[in-house]
Design brief:
By secondary structure, this protein is an all-alpha fold. It is built from 19 helices and no strands. Helix 1 crosses helix 15, helix 7 packs across helix 9 and helix 17 packs antiparallel against helix 18. The chain is globular.
Length: 386
């Protein structure tokens, strides 16, 4: 096996592991074959009394019954998810509905991001667009009134800001280029991700980490920082869409199946369905195989005029044609995504040092880039408000 093939396989495996971790630490461990310490027998086995003959017979019956029930439940889950898969494919084909109803992207958001990407940007052009987005206005006012930022303002002007127009002026255009995409992506996050309670927070943290890593790499490589940060934040919008779609579709299809089983008096099927929950393996595979493609479709539909993201995403998904090379921003996004995912895996002891080295070599992270990223806080941007 060549070094390149080994690096490529390692990169794919670790990306899948990062998706597994979104859904739960123990799930990610199980997927790579970790053994829980509670399952290991340290020392002598505990002595047990000899089972009576009737108890042995009863135990065998229970085991057979349990095995049969597990098989039936697995079959019910497979059939349920076949229906879900078909329903999701149909919904994903209607990208307008995905954009506006599933994720909740209003037309004003791409317009604001586009304005912030050009030198002719002005607060005056942003005001009417922000005014129509009440949630963004609230976020900007709350942000500028945080003690950390109030302390930065001149003592004579450190009064509490109470309207979005004033908040826009205090924050300033240079800062809004990073603040607005952050608040937008947070606004689109699923409200509830049960039965994966940490999924929303991990997804939010990963988006922030990728965006900040992209910004730091842009500084080192002479690439537009705003473009890098914005795309870093938007890179997981496909995951947001798929998670929202899957959880909603599961609930709808599951509820219908349960009702039909009860009405048709299929007791075994009804019992099996009641035990089913959203499947982490199905969702993790969905994210790994389709998230980036959905991101590309969503960003294409957002129809940016000044943010050059479509060609970059095409390369991230399809690679490059023979004789061509990766666009600088595409190369940068590969590095930022790799590093941010690797940091999260490291925090949970789910990646070995040799795996990290192979992954970093595969995406081309240099020593200088790694040193810069290692001293960067990937969870919080610290901007200065005058």
């Amino acid at each position: 096996m060549t070094d390149e093939i080994r690096q490529q396989r390692t990169a794919k495996a670790l990306e899948q592991r990062a998706h597994d971790l979104l859904l739960g630490h123990s799930f990610a461990q199980r997927q790579i074959g970790y053994i829980h310490t509670l399952d290991i027998n340290y020392g002598e086995a505990i002595k047990q009394r000899t089972l009576l003959e009737v108890e042995v017979a009863a135990q065998k019956i229970r085991k057979l019954s349990s095995t049969s029930h597990h098989k039936y439940r697995a079959q019910a889950s497979q059939q349920l998810h076949q229906v879900i898969d078909t329903a999701m494919n149909k919904q994903l084909a209607d990208i307008d509905t995905v954009l506006h109803e599933t994720i909740g992207i209003e037309d004003n958001v791409p317009a604001i991001l586009d304005i912030l990407a050009v030198k002719s940007a002005s607060v005056g052009r942003l005001e009417p667009l922000v005014k129509d987005l009440t949630w963004l206005g609230r976020e900007l006012v709350a942000f500028v009134n945080l003690p950390y930022y109030r302390a930065q303002r001149n003592k004579h002007t450190s009064v509490k800001v109470d309207n979005p127009s004033l908040a826009l002026r205090y924050i300033g255009l240079d800062n809004l280029q990073f603040v607005v995409p952050t608040f937008a992506v947070r606004h689109w996050m699923p409200h509830s991700t049960e039965p994966f309670p940490l999924l929303k927070r991990r997804l939010r943290d990963n988006s922030m980490a990728c965006a900040i890593a992209a910004q730091e790499l842009a500084k080192l490589n002479g690439i537009n920082e705003v473009h890098a940060f914005t795309l870093g934040m938007l890179l997981d919008v496909g995951k947001i869409a798929l998670i929202r779609l899957y959880l909603r579709t599961f609930e709808r299809v599951w509820q219908r199946k349960v009702t039909l089983a009860r009405e048709d008096q299929h007791k075994d099927l009804h019992t099996a369905l009641l035990e089913l929950k959203p499947d982490p393996l199905f969702l993790s595979t969905l994210l790994n195989q389709h998230a980036l493609k959905v991101t590309a479709t969503v960003i294409d539909k957002m129809a940016f005029r000044y943010l050059p993201f479509n060609a970059v995403l095409s390369q991230l998904i399809n690679g490059v044609s023979k004789g061509d090379s990766l666009l600088p921003l595409a190369m940068l996004m590969q590095k930022a995504r790799c590093y941010s995912q690797c940091v999260t895996l490291s925090e949970h002891q789910l990646v070995e040092s040799d795996e990290k080295s192979l992954w970093f070599d595969y995406v081309g992270l240099s020593k200088q880039e790694l040193e810069q990223l290692e001293k960067t806080n990937l969870q919080h941007f610290h901007i200065k408000i005058d």
